[in-house]
Design brief:
The chain is α+β, with helices and mostly antiparallel strands. It has one domain. The chain contains four helices and three strands, in the order ββαααβα. The chain has a three-stranded antiparallel beta sheet, covered by helices on one side. Helix 2 packs across helix 4. The protein starts with a strand and ends with a helix. The relative contact order is 0.21.
């Protein structure tokens, strides 16, 4: 898994290749390696639901060029705060 980390963003390439069972461990490792990243101001649930939304949409072949990778940003835009929990919550049920 290739990641790019900046002050307020974690970019995960090919995020759909990371299973949901491993994703929690990925966050723990990243939070230990990059404790000053502002992304940790978001809840773990928020980050997981955004990742889940991207993977679910990618699996459904929706906007694959935009959902192939995930950019976890802080702060989030308003539409992200509204849509990611909905789509990600549904997606969590269906993704591997």
């Amino acid at each position: 898994m290739k990641t790019t980390i900046s002050k307020n963003n974690i970019h995960i390439e090919d995020s759909a290749e990371v299973s949901k069972d491993c994703f929690g461990a990925v966050f723990v490792k990243l939070s230990q390696d990059y404790p000053d990243c502002e992304i940790w101001n978001r809840s773990r649930r928020s980050l997981i639901l955004e990742w889940s939304a991207h993977n679910f949409l990618y699996t459904l072949h929706i906007a694959r060029s935009h959902t192939k990778d995930v950019d976890l940003n802080y702060p989030q835009k308003l539409w992200e705060k509204i849509l990611y929990p909905i789509v990600g919550g549904i997606g969590w049920i269906f993704i591997q």
